[in-house]
Amino acid sequence: MCRMSNSSSNRAQDCVKHIGSSGSMEVVGVYRMFERSEKMRNLLYLKYFGDGDSKSYDNVKDIYGKDSVKKLEYIGHIQKRVGTIRKLKVNTKVWEGKES
Known about the structure:
alpha+beta, two-stranded antiparallel ribbon, 43% helix, 14% strand, Mutator_transp_dom, Mutator-like transposase domain-containing protein
């Protein structure tokens, strides 16, 4: 996370690298955004728009209290998954037994 200095004469950046796995980077980033929203902007996020990956949502759903954040799924992600299942079903040969 990098922050620019507020001073117009001093444009130095204060940077910190993410420590941990690349898979946890999104989880940590989303948690920080939700956590800082209340302190810095007096703002609470009530809805989380996700793409089917629940790791980030599971980390923030109770951040302001029990089940305070509701999850909404991106419909394109769902449509993509349904399309994949439909293609798999069409392209898979089904072996039927013969009756005697």
